[in-house]
Amino acid sequence: MAEYEELKGFRRWAADRLKLNPAQPSIASLEPYASPETIVDFEQAYREIEVVHRSVEMIINACIEIPLIVEGNSPAKKVNRILNIKPNPFEDRVRLMRRAFLDFILDGNAFFYYDGQDLYVLPANDVEVVPDERTFVSHYNYLVSNQQSSDIFGFNRGAQSKKAQAIQFQPEEIIHVMAENDTSIFRGTSKLKPLLKLMELYHYMLKFQRQFFKNNAVPGFVLTTDSILSQRVKQRLLEAWRSTYTTIFDGARNPAILDGGLKIDEFSTKSFEQLDFENSIERIQQDMAKALGVPYVLLKSGNNANIDANQKLFYLHTVVPMLTQFCSAFAHFFNNGVTVRPDRLKVPALQPDNRTQAIYYSTLVNTGIITPNEAREGLRFPKLENNDTIRIPQNITGSATDPTQGGRPLPGENPEGNEEEPNEDQ
C-alpha cells in the first residue's frame, strides 16, 4: 500500500513540475467529455450472428491461454500475482480477463480499477473519460444510472447520469486500455464498428430468405373466372384465403383474382433455389471474420493443409498485438521499472518445429557458441550439473587453445615429415 501511495505522489509531483504538452488545453477544450458510444448493435451482433460470436470467443480464448511475463523491480512480484494468479479476492484470473477482453472488443476500451492491492474491471460502456487541461485525464466518471435492463452493459442508447450521480475515479486508480479511434484520443471505438454495414446486409439477406421460404409454402397460382365479381365478393374470397392458408406471413403477397375472362401468361420465374443466398452469406461471414482478424479457415471444419500457417497468422497479427496493448497499459501504470510482455513460448502455434529447434541448439553447442545448459534452457528443459562450460570443437584443438602445442612453423623451420624433395634437375 505504501508503494501505491508513493506512486500516486510521484505522479502528482510530475504533473506539477515537469514540462507539459502546450497543446493540451486546446485538445481538452475540443472534447470536454469522452462519453461512451452506443454499442447495442455490437452486443446484438455478438449474441445473434454466429460467425461474430465464434470469432470473438476465439480471440478471447487465445488471449486467456497466454500468460504474461512480469519482470523488473520490487512491484514485479505483486504485479505478477495480480495479472497471472489472483487479481482480487472475488474473481479468478480467467473470469476477470475474459470480461476485460470482451469489453475491449465490443466497446473498444477496458478499464481496470486498482486499489493498491487488488484489480477489478469496470464495465467499459459505463465509464466516461474527462480530459484535463494541464496533464491528460482529469478523472473518470462511472455513470451509475446507465445501468438499464435493455442491454448487457447498461448503455440505454445515449442515456447518461448526472455528474453528481457518477462515481469518480482518479487517474492514479484506473488502468485504461484503449483501442484505435480516429475521432478521439481519450476513448477507443469498438472492433465491430467496421462491420456495421456488413451486419445490416447480413440481417436483410437472412430475413428475406426466411420470409421467401415461409411465403412460398402456399399454392403458387392465380384465381381466374369468366364472371365479373363485385368488390365485396373479391374481399370475402381473399379473407377466406387468408384464414385457410395460415402459412402466409407478414409482407407476403395476396392471391391474384382475375375476373371477366382475363388471363395471365406467366406470374413468376423465380424459384427458391434461384434466390438462395448461401454463397453470398458465406462471403459476408468470411469478411466479418477477416475484419476481426480471424482467418476463416479456422472457423470451418475439415482437414486443411495450411491450418498451421493460418494459426500462426492469427496469433501474430491478432492475439499478440492485442495482448501487447494490455501489457503496455499495465507497464505504464506500474511505472517503477516493471516490464510486462506476453509469453510467446507458451503458444504452440508460434513455437518452431521440434526437429528444427533441436538441430539449431545442437549446432550452437557443438560450435562452442553456447553451453549445454543454455541450450537446455532454450528448449525448456531443466539445467544439469557440470554443463556450464563451452565445448571446444575437436577440429580447432591444439594451437587454437594453447599456442605452446604445435602451431605454425617458425621462419626457417620445416614441419617434420614435410621436407621438400630435392630437384634432380638442379
Keywords for this entry:
3-stranded antiparallel β-sheet; 426 residues; 12 helices; alpha+beta
Task: Give a short overview.
The chain has 426 residues and is an alpha+beta fold. The protein has twelve helices and ten strands.
Report, as a whole number of angstroms, the end-to-end distance.
96 Å
Radius of gyration: 35 Å
Which runs of at least 5 residues are low in confidence (pLDDT < 50)?
Answer: 147-161
Structural class: alpha+beta
Q: What's the β-strand tally?
A: 10
Q: Summarize the helix and strand pattern as letters.
A: HHHHEHHEEEEEEHEHEHHEHH
Sheet with most strands: strand arrangement: 3-2-7
What is the helix fraction of residues, given as a range?
25-40%
What is the approximate shape? flat
Mean pLDDT: 79
Tell me the fraction of residues in β-strands, as a range: 5-15%
Quickly count the helices: 12
Largest sheet: 3 strands, antiparallel
Characterization of this structure:
With 426 residues, this protein is α+β, with helices and mostly antiparallel strands. The chain is 39% helix and 10% strand. It is built from 12 helices and 10 strands. The chain has helices at 2-17, 24-30, 40-48, 50-65, 76-85, 93-106, 196-215, 231-244, 278-291, 307-333, 354-366, 372-378; strands spanning 68-72, 109-114, 119-122, 127-131, 137-142, 167-169, 174-178, 223-224, 257-258, 338-342. The strands form 4 sheets. The chain has a 3-stranded antiparallel beta sheet with strand order 3-2-7. The protein has a 3-stranded antiparallel beta sheet with strand order 4-5-6. A hairpin with a 4-residue loop joins strand 2 and strand 3. The radius of gyration is 35 Å and the shape is flat.
